[in-house]
Amino acid sequence: MSDSHHDQDHDQEFEEEYADLGATTRNAMDIAETSMDIVREFVPDETLADRIRQKSVHSMGDIEFQHLVRFTGTDSLGDDEDAPVRAGARAVLEEADVITDITMVKAGVTGRGHDCEVSKAIGHGTELAERTGMTRTAAAMLELDKEDAFEGSIVTIGNAPTAALALADCIEQGTRPAVVVANPVGFVKAEESRERIREVSEEYGVPAITHVGRRGGSGLAAALTNELIHVAKDVRAEGLELDLEAETRAARARSGDGGDADADGDGDGDGDGT
């Protein structure tokens, strides 16, 4: 093979690996690659949960943020920390709906690598909000729940604590999303809303990915949802075995046998390389 053909093949592989970071030029892809390489120096790369931690660090620009991520709930394999990631990836493979709280989160969810319908809650329940005075996002969640919209869906909340609180009430009353990604940000009810999601997640087994502290936001929630999509993409490409518990996956990764944690760390809405 000539050097020119080799370079073309390398460029194509490089582009496929980092395009989902928003990078479309050589310089941007170099930045994206360097950024993820730095993240992997500080964040383990053994389990599916590690992929979420890496994406959290990359999205927030803070290495210590990896210690703030929480995984709760169960799937068919158990309640290990990989359970919400497995559940989310399966939902993507089954083309489940993705429902976000607001427009900004919806805009950050990638349109590549899946056939899920992505929609936003905001805009529903307007009459309920006007009549009761509750927030528009809380009213939207309650209105959609009446339509069973959350059953088996990926529900992503990146902005509104009241949306997370409303969703927690719905779960308590019997609603069962496939997975909840809840990272609302702020000083009023944000921490409490994520704690409430964790409580119902643990009590009723609903898989959930949250974090502790005041930070978070739409970019983080979209990035973590995108990572679920990328896990599903890797499963579809037969490079990733989904039905492994976290402990088994980590042991394989340490031994060099089947260490199939994300090799490229691609994702959207993370900021680097655009």
TrEMBL record:
GO-annotated molecular function: precorrin-8X methylmutase activity
Associated pathway: Cofactor biosynthesis; adenosylcobalamin biosynthesis
Residue ranges constituting the Cobalamin biosynthesis precorrin-8X methylmutase CobH/CbiC domain according to the UniProt record: 30-230
Biological process according to GO: cobalamin biosynthetic process
One Pfam family hit: CbiC
Region span, Disordered: 248-274
Isomerase is among the record's keywords: yes
N-terminal signal peptide: none
Compositionally biased tracts (Basic and acidic residues): 248-257
Regions of compositional bias (Acidic residues) in chain numbering: 259-274
Alphabetically ordered keywords of this record: Cobalamin biosynthesis, Isomerase
Sequence similarity: Belongs to the CobH/CbiC family.
The protein's name in its UniProt record: Precorrin isomerase
